[in-house]
Amino acid sequence: MPFRLLIPLGLLCALLPLHHGAPGPDGTAPDPAHYRERVKAMFYHAYDSYLENAFPYDELRPLTCDGHDTWGSFSLTLIDALDTLLILGNISEFQRVVEVLQDNVDFDIDVNASVFETNIRVVGGLLSAHLLSKKAGVEVEAGWPCSGPLLRMAEEAARKLLPAFQTPTGMPYGTVNLLHGVNPGETPVTCTAGIGTFIVEFATLSSLTGDPVFEDVARVALMRLWESRSDIGLVGNHIDVLTGKWVAQDAGIGAGVDSYFEYLVKGAILLQDKKLMAMFLEYNKAIRNYTHFDDWYLWVQMYKGTVSMPVFQSLEAYWPGLQSLIGDIDNAMRTFLNYYTVWKQFGGLPEFYNIPQGYTVEKREGYPLRPELIESAMYLYRATGDPTLLELGRDAVESIEKISKVECGFATIKDLRDHKLDNRMESFFLAETVKYLYLLFDPTNFIHNNGSTFDAVITPYGECVLGAGGYIFNTEAHPIDPAALHCCRRLKEEQWEVEDLMREFYSLKRRSRFQKKTMRSGPWEPPAGPGTLSSPENHDQAKEKQPAKQKTPLLSCPSQPFTSKLALLGQVFLDSS
């Protein structure tokens, strides 16, 4: 007998009082200009509170107006918020923060860091900011986007993660010590997303630096997961990276798995890779066959397809946006509307929602200001123009401001039933939630460019077109310009030959200008410094001066930590605490 959901009818929506001047729920679409300014004000309330009370710590604690390190002591909120500053139009602050990060962030520290989180937040944030630097008026060095200080920082951070991939399977550990490497005795159990969420950042890094190692390890990890799927085409949510054996066998689209599917699609688009898209489409068939019920997605046993958890997780709300990227708009909208009913029931998305019962799951009633439903609304609004999607944006602004806003920023909602708050503001609030809200209400933002405008830049390899649109957001909402991946692709030998030719060209050009200006004769040499194109010899000397790169492996998926006991027994959750 097929499993059927009993969806409770008449979910009550506690309407929040609307801000003065905001369009009401009377059928009229929310005014984008009004909410754009509201979102911008939200950003600066949170951002200024972080700078005043928490910097240089990773994140703000808004209830006590201080800061704490959470993911590695990187001033993480500053990195995560950097490209949001430019999207909001704040060029001067973007430029200031670039200088601050160069002066203050150090990856040679004795800290155990999540491989997954460091990649999506730090490597992704630095790569995005690097590629947006010229648009933000930063004086870029010769050879950009194939060189630059933020790119070098991203590469340094990524190299700290590479030892995690040195396993028999090629699938990475979850955690790495940035100074000493993988700790002895580190658990080999890693979540699926922690293995399959590297191709966007690492392929971009390989393309810009010319070092294939990053893309290579990301592809191997993706392929090992693909080869580990069950006979019915599903993957579980935790696997032993040493043996390749599944430890947690619940299959779904949410916590522990989510961004693996996301990166197959985004990696396929970014790299124009048909194989990655074919892999996702095969998964999509299995997902629809075994986990899809009445436009919800449940958790099932990966080998049998039997339902283990009839639960909706807030992290699953990215799925309609992903569906829109493959053109499946009708299914995306139906699923989005289901998720939206949950938002309207609580004024946010609880971490876990029991679908048959129509209510939250014990110990998972909170809403840490996650972006996923807003992200899907942004994608779907770009695809359809449906005003219902703007209404979600309006409801999100009203809910977050009413429930979460405090004197020092915005606090995680510990319990949506009684609006109790928790003393944390995660960096993704500024990286993702606010960014997607702003882009939802800003249809003319440069991120939405349709190719009608672009910038042409000269690289050591010829002319390169950037800023034409088609940005690919990593899973932390850091936009990557896909055109940039084609700006720097040359063998090192070719690169040096071209750099020598360009050095000679610019030397002659500058000499001519100098002679015309001074009317003096004599030899002229280009000044040494960061603006000088390097020869192979200088390149080697620079490499020798760089500090040795520590390599290590480890990972955790703390945003939604499944335990192996939970997943094996099919229970909703068992906390160790």
TrEMBL record:
Stretch forming the signal peptide: 1-21
The protein's name in its UniProt record: alpha-1,2-Mannosidase
Listed GO MF terms: calcium ion binding; mannosyl-oligosaccharide 1,2-alpha-mannosidase activity
Residue ranges of the region described as Disordered: 517-561
Domain of life: Eukaryota
One BP term from GO: response to unfolded protein
Binding site for Ca(2+): T475
Protein purpose: Involved in the endoplasmic reticulum-associated degradation (ERAD) pathway that targets misfolded glycoproteins for degradation in an N-glycan-dependent manner. May initiate ERAD by promoting the first mannose trimming step of ERAD substrates, from Man9GlcNAc2 to Man8GlcNAc2. Seems to recognize and bind to exposed hydrophobic regions in target proteins.
InterPro entries tied to this protein: 6hp_glycosidase-like_sf (IPR012341), EDEM1/2/3 (IPR044674), Glyco_hydro_47 (IPR001382), Seven-hairpin_glycosidases (IPR036026)
Active site (UniProt): E117, D258, E351, E372
One Pfam family in the UniProt entry: Glyco_hydro_47
Segments of skewed composition (Basic and acidic residues): 537-547
E.C. number: 3.2.1.-
Enzyme class: hydrolase
